[in-house]
Amino acid sequence: xxxxxxxxxxxxxxxxxxxxxxxxxxxxxxxxxxxxxxxxxxxxxxxxxxxxxxxxxxxxxxxxxxxxxxxxxxxxxxxxxxxxxxxxxxxxxxxxxxxxxxxxxxxxxxxxxxxxxxxxxxxxxxxxxxxxxxxxxxxxxxxxxxxxxxxxxxxxxxxxxxxxxxxxxxxxxxxxxxxxxxxxxxxxxxxxxxxxxxxxxxxxxxxxxxxxxxxxxxxxxxxxxxxxxxxxxxxxxxxxxxxxxxxxxxxxxxxxxxxxxxxxxxxxxxxxxxxxxxxxxxx
Length: 283
Known about the structure:
This protein is α/β, with parallel strands linked by helices and 283 residues long. The protein is 48% helix and 16% strand. The strands form two sheets. It has a seven-stranded mixed sheet with strand order 1-2-3-4-6-8-11, with helices on both faces. Strands 5-7-9-10 form a four-stranded mixed sheet.
């Protein structure tokens, strides 16, 4: 797997290319179960903002380093020590609330950067996948799990409501509102089989290696398609999730009135007729 030199400056994320137009982003703090420090989620935003506009990347695979965890969530001990979630003595309620709101919003924006990435993001979940793991994976487009994955919306167990994206995105990602409330209110663990049964993940594999292999194959398949078509499809599906059918149809018409002027459709159709592999210009 070739390392990508333009991404070599990142401390907590290892970024490589397993194939043409595919980037593999690995959360790289395995000795701490890939738990997130503030520096990590700020770095995550920079990684995905760079990937979003990189013409050499068409699909992103996101995974966690090591055998034990995708991520154990927020490093709560580090967060409590840095003072960001503490109320300073003598500060009135309103000012303390404004400070904390800015902190929460910035954290939310860093996770939302994954969802806003123009390229499809495939998440590979394994081992411990709790708290922030749910926030983060809900912001991706496709979720694939290893059989050993153990999930939990863990926040109520540490005395808070999840506030970085799970409560906004998970109800739209699965088929049962009752199940969402059950796992969010109880913080109970659920396994990969249960995640598959409600549609939280679309594939389950025997091991992390198998799950990664499946993700890479899928990423390569998607990367072989027109980037105009793929990125447009992601944009329109996300818009449809958050808007009415009528609004989405209008948005799609405007979007494709521009996108259909590209030569990509002609190239794709000709390659099908001629039984050749289509090549598309970088976007």
